[in-house]
Design a protein that fits this description.
The structure is a single chain. The protein has 15 helices and twelve strands. The protein is of the alpha/beta class. Strands 2-1-7-6-5 form a five-stranded antiparallel β-sheet. Helix 3 packs across helix 4, helix 5 crosses helix 8 and helix 7 crosses helix 9. The longest helix has 16 residues. It is elongated.
Amino acid sequence: MQSPITEYLADIIAATNHVDSGAVADYIPELGAADPNRVAVAMSTVNGTVYASGDAEHRFTIQSMSKPFAYALAIETHGLETVLDRIGVEPSGEAFNELSLDPETGKPRNPMINAGAITTHSLIGDDEDACVDRMLALFSRLAERPIEIDEVVAASELETGDRNLGLAYLLHASNALRQDPRTVVTGYIRQCAASVNVRDLALMAATLANGGVQPNTGERVFSRMGTRHLLSVMTSCGMYDAAGDWLTTVGIPAKSGVAGGIIGVLPGQVGVAVFSPRLDAHGNSARGVEMMKLLSDDLGLHLMEASRPARSSLRETRTTSVDGRPATVYVLQGDLVLSSIESLVRELIDNPPPTELVVFDMSRVDEVLPVARRTSAETAAKLIDEGHQIALIDPENTIPGFRDSHGRAVERWTSEHMDATDR
């Protein structure tokens, strides 16, 4: 049985098919040659399960989405106080490549704009090769596969990197950059040319959602305090001069890249990545922003959305007798949100119910978010198509009028339907 979450992601792509505004980043010749119709979306839970749809295997360069991870690595290397002494954390309200520094401190305003990212890169190693090697090693640990540089894109960016060189010389003149400007910019551009896909990015974002622990390996890559600090900066500065609009509409820590990618992090639940090469006036993927808005609305991702901490929706599974028939009973609990319903769906896929009759007992469920209702309806349809009969015990009518995604009514029981052997 395919997860309905994968099908939902395909629907996100279909729902944004009309978005064709913006243009590819043609100021970098190699990025200007990108296919503007490529599109992909992926999501990784904090337990490391990755769902993806669209051109999910297509590789593109990470670009500015490397900035959060470089900043986190600099914090791990030098400590937060040292990094804060070199780079501020205030939103700039300016474009990502603006030629400016804080007029009072002479420092870059934050690590998400290019001035701050160039300074960050200089803190990662003693020379260009060391910095780049450390970044590639970090990306590889996060994505669980070897990440390499797209040398063609790197060369193209180096040929058109005068603005970044100008920033580096400005930083050097203000003593914010203490290494050779050309060397640092070369390393920074190569950092940005790392080749990834949306699956890689979703898993990398899920490490941040998981408090700095890589979900599958269990390795603590970043400290909890450093991760919290990073996510705060991403929330206020990650989307450049569109950060305020992003925070009010999507409402999660995020970072974009001019190749067309965006990563988003919902702490404690998921990492999300989208890709579409056409950029809006802010340098963010136009279709990617719309995909992220839909994901936020449907999945209840907005940080200001009041909810209780998520936990597994599955309290207990048992095989028993109901009205003289063998049945598998799934006892659910708490609030059904994205992370909790995902754990139930994964259990049904990994360990399909062994009986024809399947009962979902929702007596302990308090609230069902729209994404959980939709996922439940699609899961019910798949179980029915596979020959199962489904019954729902929902004494509080938490999901009134529940039908599967094909419109078929799901039988509703009361607890009295259960035989004495099951009580």
